[in-house]
Every structure is written in structure tokens, then in C-alpha cells.
Design brief:
single chain; 426 residues; alpha/beta; six-stranded mixed sheet
Length: 426
């Protein structure tokens, strides 16, 4: 039974209700041990897998790995913002981040402006060099023309020099160069203005989101404070309105009473739909037929060879042994007996037994571990017994628990015919 619970790592709520507090703690402790054992096995398997040679492991494309930073104690280094006395407040950190971003943007803009200026300067030099290269033949030709004109003027005594005409021809060639420089400077100014506007817009969006988050935080704080004040006011009004309760002595603070909950609303049925029938409150959930058949098969195949349910010295059924009983039925049988009465029943939920005991405080239920070839109460260092009858005889003189002092004094027998264990021995 214990192995079944630990393998499934789940216990039925009805079965859990049958356990005492000590047995619940023991069961949860064993389930925790089983979880730790499984975790250690998985960790060992992973370490074994990681310890394989690199050639035997398949290589993953774009594989990534995470390495944790370790502290002085060789444990993973963890820092929680706000817990250290040197941590900066939230507003200071936000202002520093904004200032750092603005500085990075300014540096980036300066670098881009420098690059564009250097590029424009290089283009201007290139254009000037091309201009002078183009003008070089004209200058040589002009010199030749001037020489010819001078000789003709000497010969004829008069003539016209083409120099002014050449100067006029040079002027239109210089204008495109100047025009391209102005366009480049204008374009640089426009790009700089766009970048400044973009950075300003990003900073304004950041400031707007920061203001919105601060406003939302303030709103949540005000709502929580208002709800707390409303609750205090309602609790004080309820205390003043109800004068029936006992008055506490002066100087002792009373716990504020919660206001009564409002009645549940009665919803009307929609037109065309019949009202839902109410649940039958008297019907209780029982075990399925397949589960009960498995328990009967388990008892016949594994427990009958161990003389479960028989007395120690004879082949008769023990008076305290019962068949598959529910918790409610066991309480009903013990309610007609005197304190110290007990019975052993086959559990309806799992393959095992439960001992129901009637004390001065009421009925107690203890699970009996029958997962091995011996019987014992669920717990740590409990004595093992070869038969179920030996366990009952042992606890007739030894209490089940040290605090409860439960001694098995009076067996609670069958009530009515046929006996409830008849289907187990067919």
C-alpha cells in the first residue's frame, strides 16, 4: 500500500481523512524522501550524460550554454536590487539611464556629423581637383591665344584681347561647384535636425512612459489604502452595532470582525431553458466496481496465504475483522460500543487495511502497511508482525501511539447477517 502511494505520489482525500496527524506527517515525510531520491537519480543521470567525451555527444548547431557567477562561498551569486544599503533609489537609476542614453546619442550624432563633414570636405577637394584638371587645357590655350593676340597687336597696332571673354566663361563653371557645396551643407543641417528631433522624441516617450508607470503605482497605493480604511470603518461599525458578544477587558485589543457577506444573487432562468435540477445532497461517492474487484482479487491472491483475518491459534475468523467498509460505516459500528473498542477493515480505496479505534475523544483511524510480507502501522521504526492477528495481539498491551495510549481492548464484531467479509472468502 505504501509502495503504491509512493509510486503514484498521490493520496486520495478520503484515505487521507482516515489518517491521524502523526501518520499524515510520516506519509508526507516519506513522499518528500521519494521526491528527493528521484531528483538525485535524475541529477546523477544528467551528470553521467555530461561526463561523456565530447566526440560521443552529438553537436548542436548554434549551441548555447549558461555559466553562473559564483560568490566567495562557491554558491551562485545573487543580487536583489534594493536590499543593499549602497543600492540607489529607483528615480536616481532612471535619471542615470536617461542621462547615459542622451550622452551616447550626442556622441553618436557628433561622430556622424564629423564623418559627413570629412566626407563633404573630401568631395569638395575632389571636385576642385577635377575643376582645375578641366581648366588646365583652357589655360594653356588661353596663353597661346594671348601670345597670338599680342603678336597681331604688335603687327596691326590694334586688336581685342579674349581674356575678358575667358573670364566670363570661367564664372559659369565655378557656380555649380558652389551650388553643390550649399546643397551638401543644407542636407547635413537637415539630417542633424532630424536626429535631434528623433532623440528628443525618444526621450519624451521614455519620460511619458515613466510618468504613466508612476501614476499607476500611485493609483494602486491609493486604492489599497482606501480599501484598508473602508475595511477598518466597516469593522468598527459592526463592533458598535453588535452588543451581544462578551466585552474584552480594557487595554486588550480586539480583533476586528469582518462585515457579513452579502447574500448570493438568485439568477433567473433564461427564456426557453428549463431550470437545472438540484443535486441530491444525500448521495455519497463510493468506490467503483473495478477498484473493489481489484481489492478483492488482491486479498484472495496475496493475503489469504498469509492468514489475514484469521485468529492466531485457530482457523476461525477473528471477531474484530471486517470486510470492505467505508469510513462512515466504521464510525457507525463503533458508535454503539464503549471506548477502547476497535475493528480492522479492508480499505475501499487502496490495497491495505485500516484500524478504526473508539477513544474518549471520538473515532481514530490508523493505516496498516501490508505492502510486504509483514504488517505494521504506517510510521518510522514501527515493529513488524508476521500476521495481522499478531499485530492486534501486540497492541492489546502496547499503545498504538505514545500520546494517545490507544490499547485494543474490545473487538467490535459483526452486526447483522450475512457478515460483511463474506465476499472476500468466497
Amino acid at each position: 500500500m505504501l509502495k503504491q502511494i509512493l509510486s503514484e505520489m498521490y493520496i486520495d482525500p478520503d484515505l487521507l481523512a482516515e489518517l491521524s496527524e502523526e501518520q499524515k506527517q510520516i506519509l508526507f515525510f516519506k513522499m518528500r524522501e521519494e521526491q528527493i531520491r528521484r531528483w538525485k537519480e535524475r541529477e546523477a543521470a544528467m551528470e553521467k550524460k555530461e561526463s561523456l567525451p565530447v566526440t560521443s555527444r552529438p553537436k548542436k548547431e548554434n549551441g548555447k550554454s549558461v555559466h553562473w557567477k559564483l560568490g566567495a562561498d562557491k554558491e551562485v551569486w545573487v543580487w536583489v536590487m534594493g536590499e543593499h544599503h549602497l543600492d540607489k533609489p529607483y528615480d536616481v537609476l532612471c535619471n542615470e539611464i536617461i542621462a547615459e542614453r542622451a550622452q551616447l546619442k550626442a556622441e553618436r550624432e557628433t561622430e556622424e556629423l564629423r564623418k559627413t563633414q570629412s566626407k563633404g570636405f573630401a568631395n569638395n577637394l575632389k571636385m576642385k581637383s577635377q575643376y582645375y584638371d578641366l581648366q588646365a587645357p583652357d589655360t594653356q590655350e588661353t596663353q597661346n591665344i594671348c601670345k597670338k593676340a599680342a603678336t597681331e597687336e604688335e603687327k596691326l597696332g590694334k586688336g581685342s584681347r579674349p581674356a575678358p571673354l575667358l573670364e566670363e566663361e570661367k564664372i559659369p563653371k565655378k557656380e555649380p561647384v558652389k551650388k553643390t557645396q550649399d546643397e551638401e551643407l543644407k542636407q547635413i543641417d537637415e539630417e542633424k535636425a532630424k536626429q535631434i528631433y528623433k532623440s528628443w522624441k525618444e526621450d519624451s516617450e521614455w519620460q511619458a512612459s515613466l510618468r504613466k508607470s508612476k501614476a499607476a503605482d500611485e493609483k494602486r497605493r491609493s486604492l489599497a489604502k482606501q480599501a484598508q480604511e473602508d475595511y477598518k470603518r466597516l469593522s468598527l461599525a459592526a463592533e458598535k452595532g453588535s452588543g451581544e458578544g462578551p466585552q474584552s477587558p480594557p487595554g486588550v485589543l480586539q480583533k476586528p470582525k469582518r462585515p457579513p457577506l452579502p447574500p448570493k444573487p438568485h439568477f433567473l432562468n433564461r427564456a426557453g431553458y428549463p431550470p437545472k435540477p438540484l443535486r441530491n445532497q444525500g448521495v455519497t461517492r463510493t468506490a467503483s466496481n473495478s477498484a473493489q474487484e481489484d481489492i478483492i482479487r488482491w486479498f484472495k491472491e496475496e493475503q489469504l496465504p498469509l492468514r489475514a483475518g484469521y485468529q492466531t491459534t485457530s482457523d476461525t475468523i477473528a471477531p474484530w475483522f471486517h470486510g470492505i467498509l467505508t469510513l462512515k460505516r466504521a464510525n457507525e459500528l463503533l458508535s454503539t460500543c464503549e471506548p477502547g473498542s476497535f475493528l480492522v477493515r479492508v480499505s475501499e480505496r487502496i490495497k491495505g487495511y485500516a484500524l478504526s479505534y473508539l477513544s474518549e475523544d471520538g473515532c481514530k483511524h490508523f493505516l496498516i502497511d501490508a505492502s510486504t510480507d509483514s504488517y505494521s502501522f504506517l510510521g518510522v521504526d514501527r515493529p513488524q508482525h508476521a500476521t495481522l492477528a499478531a499485530l492486534v495481539d501486540y497492541h492489546k498491551v502496547e499503545p498504538i501511539t505514545s500520546l494517545g495510549k490507544e490499547l485494543l481492548l474490545y473487538p467490535c464484531g459483526q452486526q447483522g447477517e450475512p457478515p460483511d467479509y463474506l465476499e472476500l472468502f468466497k
